[in-house]
Amino acid sequence: MKIKYCCPRWGAEQISWNEFCSMVKNAGYDGVEAGMPINEIEKIQMGDALKQHDLLLVGQYYQSFEKDFTQHSESFKKYLYKLASLNPVLIDSQTGKDYYTAEQNRKLFEMAEVISNETGITIAHETHRNKALFAVHIAKELLIANPEIVITADFSHWCNVSESLLEDHHDAIELAISRTVHIHARVGYSQSAQVSDPRSPQWTTELQTHLNWWDAIVKYRRSEGADLLTITPEFGPFPYMPAIPYTAMPIANQWDINVYMMNLLKQRYPNN
What is this structure's pTM? Predict the structure, then answer.
């Protein structure tokens, strides 16, 4: 099984696509994770830069802003088809809302499955706050009720929502691991979806807990004979990252942390 590492566009939107992709390639990434470009010119620039630097694309849907379910569904469908047109290796989808009913979120899962079958592109539903899979216990119920769906594992959100390292949710974690096809390698803790800096010894327990989960995902995917697992180290910029009071200056460097996480995981999961 090949493991491919993608760099988040999040936090580097101010850099041109060509410069960004050059940095990504030079850092050792295999691809980029990004949302749908705002306009056609940027879409072309992105495509050209990815091709020039030989980088994969993981598409990201995050535009779940509409409260009305009908409007939300229409937007969801539109963005997934647009992302599919970019020919990504996978689409990461922040699907649904935490306040939608299980039936409403199920309809979105079904819509995504239809689009996935039509396009041949896997759509992985992210375990993200405010979305359908926002909490570990709710996600467990939805995964059981919707056995066809696969996920992006970002368990940092679940740690924050449950104010724990999920010690009481082993069954749910095992189920989630068995459905994971993409990982957001961010380390969370009981009070936030992002520790200040995973390189700091103060976060050893949290880092090791997440590594144990990622170990289990890699092991499971290999045991199932999967060809590919994609991983995006996804520590975010300010205000996701804590900042120094009065200055809004991030207390650590997002780019350096994500490169560190990629290299840590490359050493841990050699491609062979």
Answer: 0.97
